[in-house]
Amino acid sequence: MALFLGIDGGGTGCRAVLAGADGPVLGRGSGGPANINTDVEGAARNIMAATNEALRGRGATPQELIAVLGLAGGTMRAATARLTELLPFARIRIVNDGLTAARGALGAEDGILAAIGTGSVFAAQRLGAIRQVGGRGFLLGDEASGAVLGRTLLAEAMRAEDGFAPMTPLLRAVLDEHGGIEGIITFGNRAKPGDFGALAPRIVASDDPAAQRIFGAAVDQVRHNLTTLQDGDNLPVVFTGGLGPHYAARLADHWPQRPALGSSTDGALAMARELGVPA
Amino acid sequence: MALFLGIDGGGTGCRAVLAGADGPVLGRGSGGPANINTDVEGAARNIMAATNEALRGRGATPQELIAVLGLAGGTMRAATARLTELLPFARIRIVNDGLTAARGALGAEDGILAAIGTGSVFAAQRLGAIRQVGGRGFLLGDEASGAVLGRTLLAEAMRAEDGFAPMTPLLRAVLDEHGGIEGIITFGNRAKPGDFGALAPRIVASDDPAAQRIFGAAVDQVRHNLTTLQDGDNLPVVFTGGLGPHYAARLADHWPQRPALGSSTDGALAMARELGVPA
């Protein structure tokens, strides 16, 4: 019996799911980071650890598997070529995790995914073809993401302290908690996207004027991105990620919404099944 | 005769200037980086190298000097306390380099400094008191700086490629030169602020619609910051830094402008002379 493997991976970890051509999941596994931008060899090791865990007790080898990997940075050609060399699967396809997330969330139906957590990514699926946009990282993209919201809040707090923007209770609180401008700069020197993103819940659920201005601008960006992806259609939109429900609530009047059907790993498995068995 | 030392330092190097209570400069020196956020001991070594170079042939020791140091990160209390311990001067004052830059540019006159190069900082001097604002670094501040302009250009190029913003000749060129979105992400992973800033000359002197939109928004931010600092006055504004002339040209109708009287090192020396000799 042919065995299919779906992998989802990124900077914090990777997950594997194993199944036959149809029927239920036969095994699951997880492993460490699979960040192919920074450590292809480490990613390969962690992906194999997750794969072997999913295979446990099956009496099958990785060499038999038909695998689709949805990875952060999965569009980077040099890194994916190297990863392909390092992995033993019978058949392999590496794509950006935005594609597998969209396939998992939407199933085979036309629709749009807005995945907004620490980062952000958008994808539209039409007739089985997925177009991913955004998701370019904390520094140059990830608009409306938790990390960008948190960074904007800190920048706005410093601008308010400098007199360039109105001071509000939330900005005052953020300044005091960090030890003023000096403390915010120190925090910013060390913070990772997740550290900035930890501030986001205080922005999206606040009636503070600065929070509402920052979140309102982010909602406008998401509306713009989704309107562009709709391209005149009225496709259902799936909001996922930690901040997804907040954007969903603010954009409830615009398009039909539906819950996610499955995860990025589910999407990778579905795409592996579509790859089919080598001749 | 009392000897006064002015130091200007930051991430790329430091400069020293030595003089008596009045009269001409007696010595100059330069040294490696003085980034007290990342390496206080290294900063102290490089500051002493610049100081000893300035002292050469004077027959004086560092222990006699009355010194003012204008340093990037000079508001960070823990780092400046440690640096003070490491330096041998008879009298020492450490301030942010924005303050010494303002004192150098404006002399003793009331006025406003807008220093806009790879980073940005603003300062207003009134009756000898200097208030510095902005200059919070590439990630959380430095609005209108070359590094932020360059980062914005790259982000906009990716948004245009994704269909979220209009494509223009400059955005197309930037995408092609970097090897598309993948190449821009790779560049962004490694680029330092100066690398982003290297794109700025193509933005501030371009009639490309995207360049004009990006630069126009930055001009609006500078106008807002300067209007805030004017606080209803009509003080002369000094624009310095690599991008200073471009902002000066765009904001020529708003306030009187004048050229910088001197450098940040000159400002540090003037502030050292004001510190006076220990009793």
TrEMBL record, chains A, B:
Lineage of producing organism: Bacteria, Pseudomonadati, Pseudomonadota, Alphaproteobacteria, Rhodobacterales
Species annotation: Paracoccus marinaquae
InterPro entries membership: ATPase_BadF, Euk-type_GlcNAc_Kinase
Domain ATPase BadF/BadG/BcrA/BcrD type span(s) in chain numbering: 5-243
Domain of life: Bacteria
Name recorded for this polypeptide: ATPase
